[in-house]
Amino acid sequence: MIQVIQGDITQLSVDAIVNAANSSLLGGGGVDGAIHRAAGPELLEACRALNGCSTGDAKLTKGYRLPARFVIHAVGPIWRGGYLDEPGLLASCYRRALEIATEQGLHTIAFPNISTGVYGFPKEKACEIAIDTVQSYLTNETTSIRQVTFVCFDEENYQLYGQKLAETD
């Protein structure tokens, strides 16, 4: 099942939340900074040991002080006009996070709106990629995942995701 909510991803009691991380994995602004602050300094130490992450990929840590058991750090692309495979890299972020959750036998996962903040990815295009990638994965792969939640911080993304999910039901 896929759902969309508006709220703070750091408050969710799910198996894993996905962090819209930068390639250093050492924290930043937006969702990334909020997750690092809520999880505590142990998250930063765990991320240091991962030695960064490539755009389009993801890596796993514990959730530490978060209600979520794990954090999957996914590095989305910076929008540069769509000519540098930004759509493919964004889809890869979502797919890699789902693969990691499946490898861990997780049942519930929550995603933010990856790359739509300071990375400038057009929100409507990002919404289509996110939902299409998740729906395709859940339909075509053997997975333990039972619940995917898109957590929108802003009203615009919340409306876009709600509308897109209503169209695909």
Please give a handful of descriptors for the protein shown:
5 helices, 169 residues, Leucine Aminopeptidase, subunit E, domain 1, alpha/beta, 6-stranded mixed sheet
What does this structure look like?
With 169 residues, the protein is an alpha/beta fold. It has one domain (2-168): Leucine Aminopeptidase, subunit E, domain 1 (3-Layer(aba) Sandwich), CATH 3.40.220.10. It contains five helices and six strands; from the N terminus they run E-E-H-H-E-E-H-E-H-E-H. It has a six-stranded mixed β-sheet, sandwiched between helices. Helix 3 (86-103) packs parallel to helix 4 and helix 4 packs across helix 5 (155-168). It starts with a strand and ends with a helix.
Which fold does the CATH topology refer to?
A: Leucine Aminopeptidase, subunit E, domain 1
DSSP summary, beta strand count? 6
| Helix coverage percent | 40-55%
CATH architecture descriptor text: 3-Layer(aba) Sandwich
